């Protein structure tokens, strides 16, 4: 059995991953507050890797690309409690709590380690997952507003993230693609993140890079994989997911076609 998601409310769920690992390149449409109950989570971006374990609390920002790989650990499945902080709820909250918002570069994610206030509110959700009926909206609202209030107490600057409701605008294609080519997303999503329609994205991409998006993405991902295996002495099986490939055998085929030798033969070259 792979992934299970148990919703007690549209904004509150318990996620379980029972396979060896689960990998996803995600673009969250809402901010997500996540408490890791068991297992391990690896977050990858370029040559940066971050590991988190049971008890850690993460806030994923909306409209930010993140590669997440979840693993079971110590005989326990990967399990997490997730709270959605959606635009409608945040708009309502900040209509009652006026703030001055300045433009900031949103982080892909934030970690609050095992902060006792956040742990308390998220831990209090666990008994509700035993309900045989949905959690009433009145109770869910209290819980989510409490979490928002705690986040603001821990970090007063969090308002500049949570109260910013702007959608992505047209940005530099070169800068964005160089920073995010390892994410395995549809061309529609790449276009949305750069503030373009699919047609405009493909046209601007061809003009900028003199090739198609798929050819360019494959080349960049193979170059990154080559660097990890040769310079950082990593195993191909540990690399292919991180650089944007979904299948190890396809990665090996593409690698050999590009460089003339298999990724396992790279030592000494």
From TrEMBL:
What are the recorded GO MF terms, alphabetically?
DNA-binding transcription factor activity; sequence-specific DNA binding
> Which Gene3D superfamilies did the record assign?
Homeodomain-like
Check the record and name the Pfam families matching this protein.
ExsA_N, HTH_18
Establish whether keyword Cell wall biogenesis/degradation is in the entry. Answer: no
> Where does the source fall among the domains of life?
Bacteria
Q: Give start and end of each HTH araC/xylS-type domain.
A: 171-269
Sorted UniProt keywords = DNA-binding, Transcription, Transcription regulation
What this protein is called in its record is AraC family transcriptional regulator
Source organism (scientific name): Dyadobacter pollutisoli
């Amino acid at each position: 059995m792979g992934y299970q998601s148990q919703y007690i409310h549209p904004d509150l769920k318990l996620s379980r991953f029972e396979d060896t690992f689960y990998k996803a390149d995600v673009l969250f449409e809402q901010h997500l507050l996540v408490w890791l109950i068991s297992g391990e989570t690896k977050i990858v971006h370029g040559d940066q890797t971050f590991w988190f374990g049971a008890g850690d609390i993460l806030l994923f920002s909306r409209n930010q690309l993140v590669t997440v790989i979840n693993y079971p650990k110590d005989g326990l499945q990967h399990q997490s409690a997730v709270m959605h902080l959606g635009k409608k709820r945040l708009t309502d909250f900040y209509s009652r709590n006026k703030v001055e918002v300045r433009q900031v570069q949103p982080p892909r994610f934030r970690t609050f380690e095992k902060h006792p206030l956040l742990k308390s509110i998220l831990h209090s959700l666990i008994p509700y997952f035993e309900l045989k009926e949905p959690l009433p909206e009145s109770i869910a609202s209290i819980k989510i507003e409490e979490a928002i209030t705690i986040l603001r107490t821990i970090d007063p600057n969090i308002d500049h993230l949570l109260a910013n409701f702007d959608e992505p605008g047209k940005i530099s294609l070169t800068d964005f693609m160089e920073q995010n080519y390892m994410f395995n997303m549809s061309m529609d999503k790449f276009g949305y993140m750069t503030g373009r329609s699919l047609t405009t994205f493909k046209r601007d991409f061809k003009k900028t890079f003199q090739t198609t998006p798929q050819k360019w993405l494959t080349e960049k991902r193979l170059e990154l994989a080559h660097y990890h295996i040769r310079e950082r002495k990593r195993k191909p099986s540990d690399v292919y997911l991180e650089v944007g490939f979904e299948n190890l055998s396809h990665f090996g085929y593409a690698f050999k076609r590009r460089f003339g030798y298999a990724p396992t033969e790279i030592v000494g070259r």
